């Protein structure tokens, strides 16, 4: 089994669309810090939301660069059932890098929340003013991105 690099934007976006969560990596001194988050995605921008305070926000105030990973289509595969090292997880993954910008404008926050919710539902939602005011909205314009398919059969 081999690894294939995917460069087609449509295929990359299919991987992202197939994910329920993304994993956001931060720099915390000499220690990495990674959390799972719900997200929205459109036109190479990732939309996230969080509480207005916490470890992630403190870290972003020091360094707003993040690494975000997506992984979908997980399936255990093997070349021979009795050979342990022939087993591999078939999957596709995307790694994206960018800079977090916080959104403060009320209407833009609502737009971002709608973008996030549209990833999970076709419903239209309403938000209370206090909920919008008290949520921290993040946007990450992707600077660079790579995508791979793991466990592809050799031809």
SSE topology sketch:
Blueprint: E1 2-6, H1 9-17, E2 22-28, E3 31-37, E4 40-42, E5 45-50, H2 55-62, E6 65-78, E7 87-103, H3 106-118, H4 129-134, E8 136-152
Antiparallel strand pairs: 1-8, 2-3, 2-6, 4-5, 5-8, 6-7, 7-8
Folded structure, characterized:
It is built from four helices and eight strands. By secondary structure, it is of the alpha+beta class. It has a single domain, classed as Electron Transport, Fmn-binding Protein, Chain A (Pnp Oxidase, Chain A). Strands 1, 2, 3, 4, 5, 6, 7 and 8 form an eight-stranded antiparallel β-sheet that branches. A hairpin with a 2-residue loop joins strand 4 (40-42) and strand 5 (45-50). It is globular and about 60 Å long. The mean pLDDT is 92.
CA gyration radius, whole angstroms: 18 Å
**What's the CATH C level?**
Mainly Beta
State the helix count.
4
Helix content: 10-25%
Instruction: Please give the alpha-carbon distance between the first and last residues.
Output: 9 Å
Q: From the helix content, strand content and strand pairing, which structural class follows?
A: alpha+beta
Rough outline: globular
CATH superfamily: Electron Transport, Fmn-binding Protein, Chain A
Overall strand count: 8
Strand residues, percent: over 45%
């Amino acid at each position: 089994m081999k690894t294939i690099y995917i460069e087609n934007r449509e295929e990359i976006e299919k991987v992202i669309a197939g994910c329920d969560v993304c994993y956001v990596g931060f720099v915390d001194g000499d220690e990495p810090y990674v959390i799972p988050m719900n997200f929205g995605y459109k036109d190479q921008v990732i939309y996230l939301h969080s509480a207005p305070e916490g470890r992630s926000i403190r870290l972003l105030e020091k360094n707003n660069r993040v690494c975000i990973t997506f992984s979908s289509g997980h399936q255990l595969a093997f070349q021979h059932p009795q050979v342990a090292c022939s087993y591999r997880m078939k999957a596709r993954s995307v790694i994206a890098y960018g800079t977090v910008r916080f959104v403060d404008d009320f209407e833009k926050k609502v737009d971002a929340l709608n973008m996030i919710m549209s990833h999970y539902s076709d419903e239209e939602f309403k938000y209370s003013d206090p909920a919008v005011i008290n949520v921290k909205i993040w946007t990450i314009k992707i600077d660079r991105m790579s995508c791979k398919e793991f466990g592809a059969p050799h031809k």
